[in-house]
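re: ur question from yesterday

yeah so i grabbed the chain u mentioned. its 529 aa long if i counted rite. heres the sequnce exactly as i have it in my notes:
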Amino acid sequence: MKKLLLLSILAALIPTLANSQINFKFGGDSPLRKMQMAEIAINNFYVDEVNEQKLVEDAIRGMLEKLDPHSTYTDAKETKAMNEPLQGDFEGIGVQFNMIEDTLVVIQPVVNGPSEKVGIMAGDRIVMVDDTLIAGVKMNRTDIMKRLRGKKGTKVKLGIVRRGVKNRLTFIVTRAKIPVHTLNAAYMIRPGIGYIRLESFGAKTHEEFMTAVDSLKRNGMKDLILDLQDNGGGYLQSAVEIANEFLQDNDMIVYTEGRRVTRHNYKARGNGRLKDIGVYVLVNEFSASAAEIVSGALMDNDRAVVIGRRTYGKGLVQRPFDLPDGSMIRLTVAHYYIPSGRCIQKPYKKGDLKDYEMDLENRLKHGELTNADSIHFDDSLKYYTVRKHRPVYGGGGVMPDYFVPLDTMKYTRFHRQLSAKNILMDEYLKYADANRKSLRSKYKSFETFAREYKVPVSLTDRMVAEAKKQKIEPKDAKELEQSLNYIRLQIKSLVARDIWDMNEYFRVWNEESDIVKKALEVVGKPMPD
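ran it thru and got these structure tokens back, copy pasting raw so excuse formatting
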């Protein structure tokens, strides 16, 4: 019965949804009338007191759960938190931080941000916010962020403990707009070859991307590796703007179509600045939605070589319906189709969210992530690329031109357990906190760091010892050494991030990435048939 309450909410939202061309019928035995009567009965006659707000939210969620995996409801707080990373900024004090033993430790203040301007430094521990103690009281991360964030121009008093300083320091920080970047890294990975990694597609992604492109061109870029691994998507328009830079006038990028949504084409405008540059797109099983649109558009137009593993398969279009209290319904209204005509949405059963969520695990079990021979395509889903008429397949996601298997020998069971129990990050953060100043002093340039830095044996020994305390042990010496090799790479990347930024993190990480190595191998080679 609870789930039927949604329609009574929609009845109250006729002004909000006026442009949706929805016909509301309240008379006779209409479903809306039935819903209203059910709500009145519950509110007035149910044996116990009810929380009407929660009933309504449960009803909305219940109805949407019976549809598809991507139709969702978010309350006002969830909606705000979901939109911030895509809108390009938020309002706060401007620090990157992590938690070490219930204490907030500043990893880096945002350059020219409000915290840096008053003198807050990497390694500082924020223990008080206004008059509230936040250290050692097991306050969750969300509550801490709520206290640190606030409207632009408002002030917050921070109590800070700093290594080497006896007394607690006090800083008054004036909150400001803090930019949220969706571009993780941009650098020349080899002479003539640029590398750009996008984390998601937000409102400012195209602007960030083109700024990076201009810089790389000045450094002699002739080919570009565009890394969309682990990119979960974002704004469609941002994806269209990125794809447009590579394509010829009137090339199809993507089109949408649904039961009540007429077909809408998104085509290149012919004003792209990267139409003559070689492009190699990296994807994996976590590349989704907008990332699949970009990789699919470039692949289907025979414009890029795609490298990695089959993408996630999210090809459902959600339309947001804003509710008066700031909450939102995101309702699936159409499908995405890439230029060959194939839909990138993977199959799903309505209402069966568990099976949908198990898809990646099932791919691993069936060998699809580790062995190209385990991947089979249905001929009924065969399509052809626009210019070279190469065969491509529908049925969910974008299958790359070059398949790069997941190396399960690198990421061992022991490593997964260290990560799951947070042992790896806890021990690393203690190490970084104690050595940040000396590391920054010793390594003045990234090139020196990349060449000379070695992860201390004492650090990995502490990780292994802590794991043993928690009854986590490798099955044998071989698994331990395989785990440590990967852990050392991870730690070196993290140290580079803490001394510089995410750009340097990926400069370390990419040198051992199988997918990046494959891209470097095929740059300049003819496109596969």
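noticed a couple things. The longest strand covers residues 328-337. also Residues 413-516 form one domain.
anyway ttyl
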